[in-house]
Amino acid sequence: MSVAKVTEIIASSPNSFDDAVVEGIKRADKTLNNIQSAWVKEQKVAVANGAVTEYRVTLKVTFLLRD
Question: Using CB atoms within 10 A as the burial measure, which of 35, 43, 50, 52 is most buried?
């Protein structure tokens, strides 16, 4: 039997939402073992002087717990 846990993380990128997701998963993988999936809960942008300066995503990351 497998047991999974879901944790929420926030990641950002100066390039795009897609890049923020990739960077978030890369960073989560350094700490969490057995990542199975993730879904984007929220997307936001930071704005300065009328231009987007940063793309931010809130991710729900699912990983399996060790037996």
Answer: 35
Pairing assessment for the beta strands 4-13 and 35-48 based on DSSP bridges? unpaired
Model confidence, pTM: 0.89
At 62, the amino acid letter reads T
Q: How far is CA 8 from CA 1, 51, 53, 59, in A?
A: 24, 28, 23, 6
Strands 51-64 and 4-13: antiparallel
DSSP state at residue 67: -
Alpha carbon separation from 30 to 26, 53, 54 (Å, rounded): 7, 26, 23
> 67 falls in which pLDDT band (50, 70, 90)?
confident
